[in-house]
Structures are given as structure tokens and as C-alpha cells.
Amino acid sequence: MKYRDKVKTAKRIVIKVGTSTLTYENGNLNLKRIEKIAQTISDLVNNDKEVILVTSGAVGVGKNKLNYSEKPKTPQEKQACASVGQVILMNIYSKLFGEYGYSVGQILLTKDVLENEKRKLNVINTFETLLKNKIIPIVNENDSVSIEEIENISRFGDNDNLASVVSVIVGADLLVILSDIDGFYDKNPKINFDAKLISEVLEITKELESFAGGSSTDLGTGGMQTKIQAGKIATNNGCDMILANGENPSIILDILDGKNIGTLFVSK
Ligand code: ADP
User: Fold this and answer.
1) Half-sphere exposure of 212 (CA within 13 A, CB side)
2) What pTM was estimated for this model as a whole?
């Protein structure tokens, strides 16, 4: 259990919450869960942890607001949904964190920002200043400007990747990815009833990568493939990663108590 003991000492933590955790299947926000996320993170900050939240959900929420019956197809529609949904999402986070006495700061990123040393440093300085002032940084991909077609802009494409890159640039000790599944299994458990949960991963081998399937929901994005990629980026850069079920977000407190929950990808 020594690896789980190390998790207990994590000071700087990035928490990524997926669409499947934040929204119901119809795309509407699961407010009870978002409230629990705000409460749990506030409690961590009360306990002197530094926490950054990477949140998905904006496109799904915007889609409902704009009365689109299905997933937006054109980049313009998707960008409009992101633009509308991001405001709704931040409004709710601001209100809920406010109930526990915390303010939030929004950081919208595209990949090209972090590929440029100067702009990357600016972003790091913003994170540091927010954290020093006990403000919760809330991060998302800047989806209303980030389609591939726009010149000079490159996308992360999924928030698992974004969260791992953010973890690396801020020197986080731990990245927690909350999804709709208990952890990483030796095959996709949604279609294989005999799938077994892997509790610790010391090395992401080719065999392990082959266990990762795609998303099983319409609103989910990367499935396990993007989570394994995120695991590689995090663990190769000294950051542990835990994949766990976001059904009850206070699970994060148990994880930080060193309990054997989810899958721990141990940093190198
Ligand atoms: P999120 O929106 O939280 O990012 P995704 O739907 O993108 O969630 O990814 C989680 C899904 O990945 C699970 O519900 C499951 O169906 C699928 N999956 C594929 N392969 C695996 C695996 N080896 N272990 C666990 N889940 C898997």
C-alpha cells in the first residue's frame, strides 16, 4: 500500500470531471453532483490543499439551452453551444463554491497557448496567483474558438489530455479523473461482465493500452484511450493519476485518505 500512502501527502491536486459525471443522459446538469463537487473541493482547500478543477459539460449544456435535439454537427454550432454552456456552467460553479466561501477563476485554454513558452508562463503565473489567494481555478478547453480549421490554433481535443497537461505545467502531485466507471479494467466492463478492476498500474505497457476501449455514452468523449494517454503524460512527469467513479464526488476525500479506490497510475 505504499503508493496509496504517497497519495495522502498530495498537496497540489488537479481534479477532472467528465461529462458523464456532470450531466444526466439527456444533457441537463446533474446539480446534486455538481454541488457535491463544490463541497468536496472546498473542504480540501479548507484543509490547505491546492485544487484546480478541469470541467467538461459546456457543449452538452449549451446544446440544451439552444434547443438542439442532437449533438451539434458543424464546428460553428459546437462553438455556439460551448459559448453558451460555459457561462451557465461557470455561473453554477460560482454560486455553489460561493456557498462555502470560495471564489472561482475561469481559465480557458487551447493547446497552442501552452506550446508557446511565453504564453505558457503567463498561464502558470495566473494559476499560481489564483492558488495563492485560495481561489479555485476552473479550466476548460476554449471550445468556442478552438476548432482545428482556425489558423494558428491547435486543440487538446479532450479534457483528459488537457487535465494531464495542466497537471504537468503546475507541478501537481496528483491528478484525479472522475468518470462514470470505478476505474480501469482489463476490458471494457460495460460490455464484458467478467472485466476485472486493476487497482495499481506501475507501467503503462502496450498490453495495458490494448485494454482501453472507447466511450459508451453519446456525450462521453475519449473513453479509456484518452485517459491512458493522460496517464502517460502525468506519470512520465512525476504526477500520480487516479481514475475513479464520480457518482459520489466525496470519493475524492476517501482517495486522499489513502483508501484503495479506483485505479492508481503510479508516477515514475
Ligand atoms: P467521461 O465522460 O467521464 O470522460 P467516457 O465515457 O469518455 O467518460 O469514458 C468512460 C467509459 O470508458 C466507461 O463508461 C466505459 O464504457 C469505457 N471503457 C472502455 N474501456 C474501458 C476499460 N478498459 N476500463 C474501464 N472503462 C472502459
Assistant:
1) 19
2) 0.95
State the residue for C-alpha cell 485544487.
51
Bridge partners for 50 per DSSP: 12
Q: How far does the centroid of ligand 1 lie from the alpha carbon of residue 18, in Å?
A: 10
Domain residue spans in the chain? 2-265
The residues pairing with 201 across neighbouring beta strands, listed in sequence order, are 265
Contact 38, 96 (CB under 8 A): yes
May I ask the CATH class of domain 2-265? Answer: alpha beta
Model confidence pLDDT, tens digit, residues 9-41: 999 999 999 988 999 888 789 999 999 999 999
Q: For residue 57, what is the DSSP state?
A: -
- Out of 158, 177, 181, mutate this one to test ligand 1's pocket (max ligand atoms within 8 Å of CB): namely 181
Confidence of residue 72 (pLDDT cuts 50, 70, 90): confident
CA–CA dist 157, 163 (Å, integer): 11
